[in-house]
Design goal:
It is built from 22 helices and 21 strands. The protein is α+β, with helices and mostly antiparallel strands and 637 residues long. It folds into four domains: 199 residues, Histidine kinase-like ATPase, C-terminal domain (Heat Shock Protein 90, 2-Layer Sandwich); 153 residues, Ribosomal Protein S5, domain 2; 165 residues, Rossmann fold, CATH 3.40.50.670; 37 residues, no CATH class.
């Protein structure tokens, strides 16, 4: 058995622990740890700005790719002799673990650094580090190698202003041949400039010979908008909801509602990105959920029989939370998560009331949000069953799983492809013969489709006609909807120009609105306007979509022309010769299409109208018809 005695116990002194176990302090010796050294120095400069002592930070990535310099115009690290250890304070800070000015609130009211470890660990893990300080009209310099002083504190000469500059080169013995990545540094610095409104950050990249400046006076409001755009989300409102509270803890929140299918939360504590979230981020989630739920309950907007979950309420939102507190409790030196237990309630309490007031004061926006929540809930329910019974189409050029009735087009370019959903096999036959086969696909339906407002999910998914539509489009439904898989960027409902045709179109609109609302929001859904009448006057042919248009055309003719006019009424699309159908309804140069949209500010009203007209309860439908009154010419009740 090996002996075990006091001689086996190592005592690591100075910065030896930092070099012995770098993963403890910077998360590892890969690219993340390499860049974490830079973040530590940048964060120290940010702390100066956060406390009102600096306005500009400059980061330089040198031409060798392995060294960097961070400068600020803050107060400058103290250089006087430390009263306890009798060495320059600059040396103490850079050569001693757990030495710094952030253990109390005297020098910094809030900071990202807490334990006096960051800058000293950077020094320990650098081949070379040079600190330059401007204080009291003098410039000082001190050099280090792998955490040990090379010489002493030198007075370089006179200096104007104040500030600190740290130039360092990570140690190849620890990190190998790693280099700084310009894009990663640029992204981090840009985020910092958003979180610290008005802070000017300059990035000089000597590797590429470029220089950039970041400064965002809009702060996290601008960051929420930028995050939304970068994630290809369309905002439902032009400006984010924003609130700032100061009560011992400074809290900022910017919230944007979008058409995305997932929530996106970004959180920061004392300017540090908390990629794993924490109690402050959870407080934001709680606030949003409870404020929206309170608004829905207060105004009695929850549909009967529909359960709204927290995920439904938060679906699609982009939320940025930033807090500044005196004693943050981060998880580990890399500070990926905030653990202060009290912050969840503090943030929730500060945000919830402000958001409730905003919703009640901005009813149009609030109604958009509520409709968004209701659609998310319906899509979630549809998706749950659809996952097992409806399979999305594989890549666009794979046609193996398409419905047998579909006459597909030749083009594989969705932006150039059109799908006509046609009423009846007879009309489908005419459309197939008359279409442009290159980019026009035809899917005939048999009879009236299922009323999805009244049917159960099980019946919906068992319905052959609706299942064929989903398969043909290839983009999935509900939360499985993926716009990139949509096979046609123009989907046209082609029904007879009579009451039955209008009814079928309404049934399909209800299906798309409830289960594929992204098609409407994205402007992909259209209604064709085929003619109901052909009016021939000599060698001239006129087409009329309904009785009113027929009378308007006849009214423009002379008495003699009206007497000679030959008027034909089509009983249905199936009666039209293929060429006539193409010339009047399919030809992009001559046809008339109505794009399906939800008017601005009418989202909740639209949702309610569909529920009233297509739901099981006849009373709301009767009332809606009576309210419409003169606007309804002919309605099949």
């Amino acid at each position: 058995m090996a002996e075990y005695s006091g001689s086996d116990i190592q005592v690591l002194e100075g910065l030896e622990p930092g070099r012995k176990r770098p993963g403890r302090d910077i998360g590892g010796t890969g690219a993340d740890g390499y860049h974490h050294l830079l973040w530590e120095i940048v964060d120290n400069s940010v702390d100066e700005a956060m406390n009102g002592h600096a306005t500009t930070i400059q980061v330089t990535l040198h031409a060798d790719g392995r060294s960097a310099t961070v400068s600020d115009d803050g107060r400058g690290i103290p250089v006087d002799i430390h009263p306890k250890v009798k060495r320059p304070t600059l040396e103490v800070i850079l050569c001693t673990l757990h030495a710094g000015g952030k253990f109390d609130n005297k020098a910094y009211s809030a900071s990202g650094g807490l334990h006096g470890v960051g800058s000293s660990v950077v020094n320990a893990l650098s081949e070379e580090l040079v600190a330059t300080v401007k204080r009291g009209g003098t410039e000082y310099r001190m050099a280090f190698r792998r955490g040990k002083v090379r010489g002493g504190l030198d007075k370089v000469g006179e200096a104007r202003g104040t500030g600190t500059t740290i130039k360092f080169r990570p140690d190849t013995e620890v990190f190998g041949d790693l280099t700084f990545e310009s894009d990663r540094v640029r992204e981090r610095l840009e985020v910092v400039s958003y979180i610290h409104r008005g802070l000017r950050i300059v990035l000089k990249d000597e590797m590429s010979g470029t220089s950039e400046e970041f400064k965002h006076d809009g702060g996290i409001r601008d960051w929420a908008l930028t995050l939304s755009k970068r994630n290809a989300r369309n905002a439902l409102v032009p400006e984010p909801f924003y609130v700032q509270k100061q009560n011992g803890v400074r809290i900022e929140l910017a919230l944007l509602w979008t058409d995305g299918t997932r929530e996106l939360f970004a959180s920061y504590a004392n300017g540090i990105p908390t990629g794993m979230g924490g109690t402050h981020e959870q407080g934001s989630r709680d606030a949003v959920t409870r404020a929206v739920r309170t608004y829905i309950d207060t105004h009695e907007l929850q549909p009967r029989g529909l359960v709204l979950t927290a995920e439904d309420i938060r679906e699609g939102i982009v939320c940025v939370t930033s807090v500044f507190l005196a004693e943050p409790q981060f998880q580990g030196q890399t500070k990926d998560k905030l653990n202060n237990p009290e912050m969840r309630g503090i943030v929730e309490g500060a945000i919830r009331g402000a958001l409730e007031q905003f919703l009640n004061s901005n009813r149009t926006i609030a109604d958009l949000v509520v409709n968004r929540v209701i659609q998310a809930a319906r899509a979630r329910l549809a998706s749950r069953s659809a996952e097992e019974q409806v399979r999305r189409k594989s890549p666009v050029n794979n046609r193996l799983n398409l419905p047998g009735k579909l006459a597909d087009c030749s083009s594989n370019d969705p932006s150039d492809s059109e799908l006509f959903i046609v009423e009846g096999d007879s009309a489908g036959g005419s459309a197939k013969q008359g279409r442009d086969r290159e980019n026009q696909a035809i899917l005939p339906l048999r009879g009236k489709v299922l009323n999805t407002e009244q049917a159960s999910l099980k019946k919906l998914l068992e319905n052959k006609e609706l299942s064929d539509i989903v398969s043909a489009l290839g983009c999935g439904i509900g939360k499985d909807f993926t716009k990139d898989r949509l096979r046609y960027h123009r989907i046209v409902l082609l029904m007879d120009a009579d009451v039955d045709g209008h009814h079928i179109a309404t049934l399909l609109l209800t299906f798309f609105y409830r289960y594929m609302p992204e098609l409407i929001a994205g402007g992909y859904l259209y209604i064709a306007q085929p003619p109901l009448y052909r009016i021939e006057v000599g060698h001239t042919t006129h087409w009329a979509g309904d009785d009113r248009e027929k009378e308007r055309i006849l009214g423009r003719l002379s008495a003699g022309q009206r007497d000679k006019a030959e008027i034909s009424r089509f009983k249905g699309l199936g009666e039209m010769p293929p060429k006539v159908l193409y010339d009047t309804t399919l030809d992009p140069k001559k046809r008339r299409l109505l794009r399906v949209t939800v008017p601005d500010g009418q989202a909740v009203a639209t949702d309610q109208l569909i529920a009233d007209l297509m739901g099981k309860d006849a009373a709301p439908r009767y009332q809606a018809i009576m309210d419409a009154g003169p606007e309804i010419d002919d309605l099949d009740v």
